[in-house]
Amino acid sequence: MKILFICPPFSEHSQKDKGMPIAPPVLEYLAGLTRRVRPDAEIALLDAKHEPFDPDLIEADLVGISVMTAQAPWAYRAADALRKRGIRVVLGGIHVTALPQEAAQHADSLVLGECENIWEEALRDAESTSGLKPIYHGDLPALKGLPEPVTDLWNNRYMFGYFQTARGCPHRCSFCSVHKFFGDKIRLRPIEEVVREVAGSRRRLFWCIDDNVWGVNIRRSIELFQEMGRTVKGKWWFGSGDLRTVQQPEGDKLLTYARRAGLTAVMLGWETENLASLEEYRATAKQGSDRRDAIRKIRDHGIDVMLFIVVGGRKDTKKDFDDILRLCDELKVSAHPVMLTPLPDTELFEQYKPYLIPGMDWDMYDGNHAVFEHPSMSIFEREAEFIKLRTGIFTMKRILGRIFKVSLRGFPMSHFSSFMIQYPQGRAFRDYAGQWMRKHPEFDEKR
Ligand code: B12
Ligand code: SF4
Q1: Any residues with Cβ below 6 Å from ligand 1, and which?
Q2: For atom 79 of ligand 1, which residue has the closest CA?
Q3: Which residue among 211, 212, 271 has the greatest number of ligand 2 atoms within 8 angstroms of its CB, and so is best to mutate?
Q4: Please, is 200 exposed, middle or buried when counting C-beta atoms within 10 Å of its C-beta (0-12, 13-18, 19+)?
Q5: Whose Cα sits closest to atom 4 in ligand 2?
Q6: pLDDT at 11
Q7: What would the pLDDT profile of 2-53 be if each residue is shown by its tens digit?
Q8: pTM surpassing 0.90?
Q9: What is the pLDDT of residues 193-236, one digit of tens each?
């Protein structure tokens, strides 16, 4: 059986520039899982962000498309075109799981939730006379013995691969899909399996896609980092963590071993400077009591920091956009701001339902757009502030200023990684900002 897995591109309203050179984890993982359950299958991968997609040229018995919300319109169009040619399409991923009735109109079959325990059955059905079932319900599998990603099927050269050590999150941030989809209890991969996978990979640079490389169980994080430091040599990675954990008494120990394990940069959910918004998003618990000090501490250990930020909520004003740039300058850190986006099947979606702007397709839910009414700011005002903030964060002067703030304990890889994370994001966003400004000639950058 010939199976093609596709990762849709960013939405048509997002940046055209490709950003960081990261191989889509989900495709490498699905290839690994498929090789395990159907070793005879012929597998191909298509990252439509980097490669052209022409449905008329696709030759496959089965196409699997992974769908995040912002990718849904592209995925549905692709699926419709492939099915018109008689190619069967399976849709899976977070958006499909949140809105199965919508997705079902564009697929022969849906895979809802995590697919480890049902993918073999779906492939068997695809070849049997009874055929694919309309829906396969995945569960929350134990993470022992997961297949390893397949990295040799690409036409492209990606600088960064990925690894994952856990799924699920006990926090309940209202804008986030993770605790709903992966559950609110953390499931852990055995440390020896993670270490074997990373050590054996032909790649040297990785993104650890865990939502909390630390932030749930400090003892487990320390053990993982100790083992990685002992066993994995000449490999470096970045990941996401929280601010609270490093403020605990064992914070220094955690950071020491994290750097020895190859951690060069960490993305932290600061979210906002507006305390009313922080409470509204239920994101206070993970902040700790002195988050500015937490940042200094991490950087003193030679690990670079990028803040995850949400702007444009209904409790935010123009000041909250300005405060983020001030914060970046004060702490000399970079930030990845997104517009607050009520994604389907999150608590925020229910809360903001009355304010959602009708007629906006899901590709507008990409974190760059204002998709709900605001008490005092128009759509244009919010998007203009967002453009100013995001382009302001990534000027070359600011990028370089930040790199020199990372302690020499992390030299040279943390400094190299700081550049490799910041520069492509800045370039991609400038490209997007250029498109946005052409559509909005009334925009005045200096205002
Ligand atoms: C890696 C990642 C990215 C990467 C790469 C994504 C990619 N396409 O591969 C990049 C940086 C590009 C990215 C971008 C964004 N991301 Co992102 N990202 C992630 C992250 C950290 C890991 C996802 C992952 O690769 N997991 C590993 C794979 C193996 O697992 P998986 O995808 O969950 O798939 C499992 C099942 O879902 C199923 N499955 C999935 N697809 C399919 C398909 C088939 C056919 C089958 C059979 C099964 C199947 O099988 C897998 C194993 O069980 C998640 C957080 C998380 N914890 O999941 C957020 C996450 C997916 N991202 C999210 C968001 C919001 C975004 C952005 C909009 C954020 C932004 N504004 O910058 C952009 C999207 C931009 C766009 N316009 O498309 C949300 C998605 C919510 C939603 N409803 O869509 C998540 C969940 C984060 C969150 N906190 O809510 N992201
Ligand atoms: S934003 Fe991060 S900490 Fe909050 S629920 Fe999502 S994954 Fe957990």
Answers
A1: 7, 10-11, 14, 24-26, 29-30, 64-66, 68-71, 90, 92-95, 111, 114-116, 119, 176-178, 209, 211, 338, 343, 366-367
A2: 177
A3: 211
A4: exposed
A5: 173
A6: 65
A7: 999 999 998 665 555 566 788 999 999 999 999 999 999 999 999 999 899 9
A8: yes
A9: 999 999 999 999 999 999 999 999 999 999 999 999 999 999 99
Task: Output the CA 4–ligand 2 centroid distance in Å.
Answer: 31
Both tokens of 84, joined, read 């018109």
| Strand stretches in 316-358, DSSP E | 334-339
pLDDT in tens, 350-366: 999 999 999 999 999 99
Q: How far is the CA of 169 from the centre of ligand 2 (A)?
A: 6
- CA-nearest residue, atom 7 of ligand 2: 211
Task: Point out the ligand 2 atom lying closest to the alpha carbon of residue 211.
Answer: 7
114-118 LR contacts (CB < 8 Å, sep 24+)? 114/138, 114/139, 114/140, 114/141, 114/167, 114/182, 115/30, 115/33, 116/33, 116/141, 116/146, 117/141
Determine whether 314 is exposed, middle or buried from the number of CB atoms within 10 Å of its CB (0-12, 13-18, 19+). Answer: middle
**How far does the centroid of ligand 1 lie from the alpha carbon of residue 166, in Å?**
15
The mean pLDDT value for 279-298 works out to: 96
Q: At what angle do helices 291-300 and 318-331 cross, to 10 degrees?
A: 40
Residue 155's pLDDT is 81
Task: Name the pairing type of β-strands 187-188 and 166-167.
Answer: antiparallel
User: Judging by beta carbons within 10 Å of its beta carbon (0-12, 13-18, 19+), is residue 429 exposed, middle or buried?
Assistant: buried
E-strand ranges in 260-328 read: 263-271, 304-311
SS3 label, residue 166: strand
CA of 267 to the centre of ligand 2 (A): 12
Q: Using one digit for the tens of pLDDT, what is the confidence trace for 70-79?
A: 999 999 999 9
22 Cα–ligand 2 center, Å:
22
Tell me phi and psi for residue 210, to 5 degrees: -55, 150
**DSSP SS3 for 81:** helix
- Going by alpha carbons, the residue nearest to atom 62 of ligand 1 is 68
